[in-house]
């Protein structure tokens, strides 16, 4: 008994698979072709960061600084890195007990830096230990805009 091999042209095979997927309600191939690559996502994020930094530096835009704090700044960053992200150096706050006494997680020798004010007159205080941002929760600034 001999076995016959059926040769199907590749394009017919692909069309058949696409038809099967479409009949099954699957549009994964279409979705995958529309998904941005990770480098495209990084480029878009970098562009968004630049736009927000510019808006904050030029206008004190509240939404912009809050977006940067929520989406770019992260615990463990050093003072200079946070300053670069926000577009201005942080100002050391010597009399910072009003910040440290709000949260028992801070030490007396932690250092507080201030950014702002924004266009609503608010300043943003971040606390650093050994020059690294500590006890930071980006969620307190939202994730929006």
Layout: helices, strands, pairs:
Blueprint: H1 10-23, H2 28-34, H3 38-59, H4 62-71, H5 79-86, E1 91-93, H6 97-100, E2 111-115, E3 124-129, E4 132-133
Antiparallel strand pairs: 1-2, 2-3, 3-4
Counted beta strands: 4
In DSSP terms (H or I, runs of 4 or more residues), the helix count works out at 6
- Which quaternary structure do these chains form? single chain
Percentage of β-strand residues: 5-15%
Please summarize the sheet with the most strands: 4 strands, antiparallel
Over the alpha carbons, how many angstroms does the gyration radius reach?
26 Å
* Total count of domains: 1
- Secondary structure class reads alpha+beta
Helix content: 40-55%
Rounded average pLDDT: 83
Gross morphology: globular
Describe what this molecule looks like in 3D.
This protein is of the alpha+beta class and 145 residues long. It has one domain. It is 45% helix and 11% strand. The protein contains six helices and four strands. The chain has helices spanning 10-23, 28-34, 38-59, 62-71, 79-86, 97-100; strands spanning 91-93, 111-115, 124-129, 132-133. It has a four-stranded antiparallel β-sheet with strand order 1-2-3-4, covered by helices on one side. α3 packs antiparallel against α4 (62-71). The longest helix is centred in the middle third of the chain and has 22 residues, at 38-59. The protein is globular, with a radius of gyration of 26 Å.
